[in-house]
Amino acid sequence: MHPLSRHVIDVPDFPKPGILFRDITPLLRSHFGQAMEALDGLFSATEWAATDAVAGVESRGFILAAALAERRRKGFVPIRKKGKLPPPVVDRSYELEYGSGVLEMQRGKGRLLVIDDVLATGGTLSASAMLAVDAGFRVDLVGVLIDLGLSPGFRWQGQPIRSVIRYG
Fold first, then answer.
1. How many domains, in total, are found in the chain?
2. Are 128 and 114 in contact (CB under 8 A)?
């Protein structure tokens, strides 16, 4: 287990009974720089050079993606919940472990690295990457801070999802 995992707190029955929520707030509060270095290090210099922007999935993915974009002097592209971006937008519905939702983003172009905080069932990450493609981007890489181990072998375009902390 990665040393940063000791700063992730387990919260049982949140946001619904039966869900074990992995809270990264203590990690961000005390070791944000180390978490950014670890995420940054998931991708090679060549991969970073080919990336135009970092897309972050609302809401904790914003924090991580924006910081990575700043570190690498890349653009930042928000992927938001329905109704949070001004039109025109492209949208995509998705299922997650405790419900469903709709994500939106504005159209664009270029090569993206998609970042989120957690990989659980893969619904949000899949929808985010497919949405980015629908919006005109090329998604080369997908990364997360935490892989909960609920979707072994989960991939985007044949590439494994890269993660810093892995459970399961």
1. 1
2. yes
Q: Does the residue 1 lie in any domain?
A: no
pLDDT of 96 higher than 80: no
- Residues 101, 124: Cα–Cα separation, whole Å: 9
pTM over 0.85: yes
Task: Count the alpha carbons within 13 Å of 53 in the hemisphere toward its beta carbon.
Answer: 15
Residue 9 belongs to a domain: no
Tell whether 74 is covered by a domain.
Answer: yes
pLDDT of residue 130: 97
CA angle, 80 then 125 then 106, to 5°: 35
Task: Give the active site residues.
Answer: 60, 97
**Residue 48 sits in which domain range?**
31-166
